[in-house]
Amino acid sequence: MAYITQDDIEDRIGADDLAALADYDGDGQADQAVVAQAITSAGALIDSYLGVRFSVPVEPVPDVLKTRAVNLAVYFLRLGRDSVTEDVRAQYEDDIEWLNQVVAGSVSLGIEPSPDESAGAPRARWDTRPRLFGREEPL
Length: 139
Hints:
This protein has 139 residues and is an all-alpha fold. It has one domain. The chain contains 5 helices and no strands. The protein has helices spanning 6-13, 15-22, 32-50, 63-80, 86-104. It is rod-shaped. The termini are far apart.
């Protein structure tokens, strides 16, 4: 499951800019396979961070996560065109820092984290009676 679609990227950066980044065959349109690869890469990166604390893929997708996913997909598209500027790199680093903060719990996604595996496990209870017989007690 992808966190975003090609339309989400177009809404953010515009069809012309998307075509400039993802038109590898020269027809003036963004190549769907190129955009799909960037979306997949962004989702995989997000899942690699959030998987530590949440069940991934995250459903429903919070708007703040969609925004970060679009940023990351655009970053991967720019990498393919060797057009990563200092501003784009700074945005990427900000997105990664945000993911780290989500995992650390200092920023909320607005969803509950996955329960620990042992959270629902039954607890063992141990009750014993005093010994009736032993080495120091006569039979």
